[in-house]
Amino acid sequence: MQPKTISDLLTQNIVLPEVEIKGWVRTFRANRFIALNDGSTLNNIQCVVDFENFDEALLKRITTGAAIHVKGELVESQGKGQKVEIQVSRLEVLGDSDPETYPIQPKKHSFEFLRENAHLRTRTNTFSAVMRLRSSLSFAIHKYFNESGFYYMHSPIITGSDAEGAGEMFKVSTLDEKNTPLTEDGKVDYSQDFFGKETNLTVSGQLEAETYAMSLGKVYTFGPTFRAENSNTSRHLAEFWMIEPEVAFMDLAGNMDLAEDFMKSVIKYILEHNREDLEFLDKRLQDEEKTKPQAERSEMTLIEKLNFVTDNHFKRVSYTEAIDILRNCKPNKKKKFKYLINEWGTDLQSEHERFLVEKHFKCPVILFDYPANIKAFYMRLNDDGKTVRAMDILFPGIGEIVGGAQREERLDVLKEKMTAINIPEEELWWYLDLRKFGTAVHSGFGLGFERLVMFATGMSNIRDVIPFPRTPQNAEF
Ligand code: 4AD
Ligand code: MG
């Protein structure tokens, strides 16, 4: 049987003649009260020791960060703040912690400092709450797709293709760096590399997911993806996790319906199952907001924002309409935007996305029908010949959280687009085969998992919602 956790003891809230718990000491007060945490809940269990009954040398080892094992009676608490506590009868130190050098002191640490100590930061309330939510969200995602008849597909991590055509890839190679084999014309001879061709870490599992959608019908991937884009922002990682559903016979409207229903469902799940952690993070965010100037403060609390997504219809707006709104809006006219919107065809920046969501529509927004030349090659060209059936979902505080599209299912149009941007047919022959053998309308999207976790936890830096962030100049741990 699994041992009981602190969460079990606190939620059952009944007294018991004997319980035992293992955990890490948060604090030890007055040589009497140990606040013990085992990661199962935000809350510590209070362990009361009568110091007369224990060796002084043993009690000295009860320091913040130490791993201990306690046994005793679970009794009604005499003090405030908890209903039950453990009256300790046996106490054992499993692992000492040097109080002088243990980085996680019982005080407020900056997120910057905790990032440098990412191996220990989940011993704090904020990070344990964030990571429990991350775990819950991934469960909710699998649950949603499983209950909706989707198959979970594992797309490869090492690929020979650039799904997004943006060239932001990490190379995978075992060639000798000092003695790289070259071809006659002086280029690297990848035929001698491990895979006999140039390979990289995947930027998206979409292209492979399309092959499975065109046989199994409804599939999704959920795995790590890698981008060597040198954008050192609070919303970009070099390694992040993406959820990519792909569905045969579904058009762009169906894709939007799926994405909206999916997003609402996973957020509802955490509202129902992670209340305690959400309330803690809600309060944390409110405290943080208080330190900002009035004008920059969010109008909604974290839980209000989550309810706002589950309760509101996602507004669907074409790129063309959005550009009209942005061109004529105050911050554009008063030159408050860093990137001014002048003409149709420009790509939107996060400041524009956030303006649309937070100031103009005041609800989640799905932008669709983008100009073809700012979107990836695989998107379905509209009859106007200049826009594609793309869709991006924009969330308050985040901007783009989902990017997706109806896929180009016509062989000739797809070939033409690939030629135009120099993607050799030999590289994606298998992708083109899907258009030769039983092609059909199909669509899908990609949700950036860390952006979802940011939204759900109210954390403002993406480095704080993944265990060990990989960003330019940083791959510690
Ligand atoms: O918009 P993107 O680039 O779309 C795709 O990769 C498609 N193949 C998805 C599909 O249709 N199956 O990326 C999808 C999402 C973005 O909306 C964003 O949330 C997230 O992935 N994302 C990142 N998250 C963290 N760090 C980065 N560097 C990210 N780049 C994209
Ligand atoms: Mg995108």
TrEMBL record:
<dbReference type="GO" id="GO:0005737">
    <property type="term" value="C:cytoplasm"/>
</dbReference>
<keyword id="KW-0547">Nucleotide-binding</keyword>
<dbReference type="GO" id="GO:0005524">
    <property type="term" value="F:ATP binding"/>
</dbReference>
<dbReference type="Pfam" id="PF01336">
    <property type="entry name" value="tRNA_anti-codon"/>
</dbReference>
<dbReference type="GO" id="GO:0004816">
    <property type="term" value="F:asparagine-tRNA ligase activity"/>
</dbReference>
<keyword id="KW-0436">Ligase</keyword>
<keyword id="KW-0175">Coiled coil</keyword>
<dbReference type="InterPro" id="IPR045864">
    <property type="entry name" value="aa-tRNA-synth_II/BPL/LPL"/>
</dbReference>
<dbReference type="InterPro" id="IPR002312">
    <property type="entry name" value="Asp/Asn-tRNA-synth_IIb"/>
</dbReference>
<dbReference type="InterPro" id="IPR004365">
    <property type="entry name" value="NA-bd_OB_tRNA"/>
</dbReference>
<comment type="similarity">
    <text>Belongs to the class-II aminoacyl-tRNA synthetase family.</text>
</comment>
<comment type="subunit">
    <text>Homodimer.</text>
</comment>
<protein>
    <recommendedName>
        <fullName>Asparagine--tRNA ligase</fullName>
        <ecNumber>6.1.1.22</ecNumber>
    </recommendedName>
</protein>
<keyword id="KW-0963">Cytoplasm</keyword>
<keyword id="KW-0067">ATP-binding</keyword>
<keyword id="KW-0030">Aminoacyl-tRNA synthetase</keyword>
<dbReference type="GO" id="GO:0003676">
    <property type="term" value="F:nucleic acid binding"/>
</dbReference>
<dbReference type="InterPro" id="IPR004364">
    <property type="entry name" value="Aa-tRNA-synt_II"/>
</dbReference>
<dbReference type="GO" id="GO:0006421">
    <property type="term" value="P:asparaginyl-tRNA aminoacylation"/>
</dbReference>
<dbReference type="InterPro" id="IPR006195">
    <property type="entry name" value="aa-tRNA-synth_II"/>
</dbReference>
<feature type="domain" description="Aminoacyl-transfer RNA synthetases class-II family profile">
    <location>
        <begin position="131"/>
        <end position="467"/>
    </location>
</feature>
<dbReference type="Pfam" id="PF00152">
    <property type="entry name" value="tRNA-synt_2"/>
</dbReference>
<dbReference type="InterPro" id="IPR004522">
    <property type="entry name" value="Asn-tRNA-ligase"/>
</dbReference>
<keyword id="KW-0648">Protein biosynthesis</keyword>
<dbReference type="InterPro" id="IPR012340">
    <property type="entry name" value="NA-bd_OB-fold"/>
</dbReference>
<feature type="coiled-coil region">
    <location>
        <begin position="271"/>
        <end position="298"/>
    </location>
</feature>
